[in-house]
Design brief:
Layout lengths: L3 H28 L5 H22 L8 H25 L5 H8 L2 H13 L6 H23 L4 H22 L9 H22 L9 H29 L1 H4 L2 H17 L5 H18 L10
Helix pairs in contact: 1-4, 1-9, 1-11, 2-3, 2-8, 2-9, 3-7, 3-8, 4-7, 4-11, 5-6, 5-7, 6-12, 8-9, 11-12
């Protein structure tokens, strides 16, 4: 059984993960100003994967050599990096970082729905169902406002972020299958597989040698790759095993105020009243689903 120290460590790591991923949306917003999304994410996965591989070698570990594990890494890459990273990067060319943070924070909602409908490895309770309802209401408030104004470009960008969020939910569940591996191995494997898929696409579509990225975009790419990807994914895979898929995605309700705050401070972003209301619903829903219920103490 986990000790009190283990639980404290996991909760601290959950907070660190929320900060790292909360900052990622601002990094992305700055990065895609002068670097196309596919090239930006190809570089992100390549840099992060290379860093993780170097750390693995330094620790004296070795990557798996069997085809089965690498097929699992490739599938995890599609769910956790290739598709969602690219969708979010493309969306943030028109959507604010704070808004992207809020929409993407609904990952526990979709993780719960997928576990309830498919894997059924976590308990369905009335409290979680209420949380799902609140989270979905928040999404409808945010996206519905744009929809009422017509099917504009920003609406499709917001929908793309929600699709990316569903991918993250699937990745949280599939990531449970790496229990026999050191957390760094699936983190590095999925990043490297993502790079193998995206780098050739970047060369064909964007011809990156013709780009002239700004210094701010390059620094944002490095910050995103080193801290919000390489370090964050090591923490993520550890917590998947210790806290479970829904428990790990609970950092989403912490990530919302962090991500929105960073966007406001560094990018000067502001939210409209409907978005604030939607954010409150999302945070309340995610918190209701993921904050543990205290069990009454036994009478002595």
């Amino acid at each position: 059984m986990p000790t009190r120290n283990d639980t404290t460590t996991d909760l601290a790591l959950l907070g660190v993960l929320a900060v790292l991923w909360g900052a990622s949306y601002t990094f992305i917003k700055i990065g895609v100003e002068t670097i196309p999304p596919i090239t930006f994410i190809a570089a992100r996965t390549l840099i992060a994967g290379t860093i993780l591989l170097a750390i693995i070698h330094w620790r004296g570990l070795a990557m798996p050599t069997d085809a089965a594990n690498w097929r699992r890494f490739a599938f995890q890459a599609c769910l956790n990096s290739v598709v969602p990273f690219t969708l979010i990067a493309a969306a943030e060319r028109s959507v604010d970082a704070g808004l992207a943070t809020i929409l993407n924070a609904t990952s526990p909602i979709f993780t719960f729905l997928l576990t309830a409908l498919i894997t059924r490895h976590e308990q369905v309770t009335l409290r979680k169902l209420v949380g799902v309802g609140a989270g979905i209401a928040g999404i409808c408030l945010i996206i519905g406002t744009e929809a009422l104004g017509g099917l504009g470009h920003e609406l499709w960008a917001q929908v793309a972020i929600v699709v990316a969020t569903v991918c993250y939910a699937g990745a949280a569940i599939f990531g449970r299958g790496f229990k026999g591996l050191d957390p760094m191995l699936p983190a590095a494997g999925s990043m490297l597989c993502g790079a193998v898929m995206l780098v050739p696409l970047s060369l064909v579509v964007d011809q990156p040698w013709t780009l002239t990225p700004s210094l701010a975009s390059i620094l944002a790419l490095l910050g995103l790759s080193i801290f919000s990807t390489a370090l964050a994914f090591v923490i993520y895979f550890r917590l998947i095993h210790t806290l479970g898929s829904v428990g790990t995605t609970s950092q989403a309700y912490l990530r919302v105020p962090i991500g929105v705050g960073i966007g406001a401070v560094f990018l000067g972003e502001t939210l409209g009243p409907t978005v604030w209301l939607g954010m409150a619903c999302v945070v309340a829903g995610v918190a209701a689903m993921t904050i543990p219920v205290r069990k009454p103490a036994l009478a002595r």
